[in-house]
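Here is an idea for our session: we take a single protein and study its fold together. Once you have written the record down, we can walk along the chain together.
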Amino acid sequence: MRLLPALRLRPGPGAALPRYRQGQSPEPRTREYFYYLDHQGQLFLDDTKVKNFITCFKDVAFLSCFFKQLEPNRSGRYEAEFPFLSRCGRERNFLRCEDRPVVFTHLLPGDSQLLSFCGGGERLAVPFQPEKLTVFPENGRLYHPAPAKSGGVGLVRSALAWEWSSSFRYARGQEQPPTHFLWEGRSYRLTEELLPLLRRESSDSPISTRQS
């Protein structure tokens, strides 16, 4: 099984747009904002018409604060449309995502072996665990453990997955997920321990129902 590029999810039949207004105040001294995270780890205001590198958020301090506070949305508001919520004081920041709420973009330079996510540089990073890289057979995408507060699983950006693709080995044949990963002269047997979580969340709820 070869790694596949991340595909954009299209809206399902009858998918409706959530009704909101950026900066709305449903109660005194409370503001609500709505965001979208794509499969490249770029964060946008949800209603941004053209989503690309120019229009995504790039401020590291903001991104670090946003994603460190991110958790499942159990606020009773927009839970179906925006499954994640980042609170900052009395500000509620709702998030929907193309795949996962954590997208790993690159390894930090040096000997730190830290895998960075969502544009946060060293402020948003986890230890790289090559043996826990997991290809999800249902979509061909690559995943890695993420902070538990954000769901425990993060998507590996397609460019990084492609960069690593030649290091995977397929002891069960090319039509099956890889079994080993070669990293810095060592062969790691892949544990596939993220598969149960990925399958459970895939069956429990759709990740996104509307295309940007």
Remarks:
- Confidence is low (pLDDT under 50) at residues 5-15, 206-212.
- The helical segments are 60-68, 158-164, 195-204.
- The radius of gyration is 18 Å.
- The longest strand covers residues 31-37.
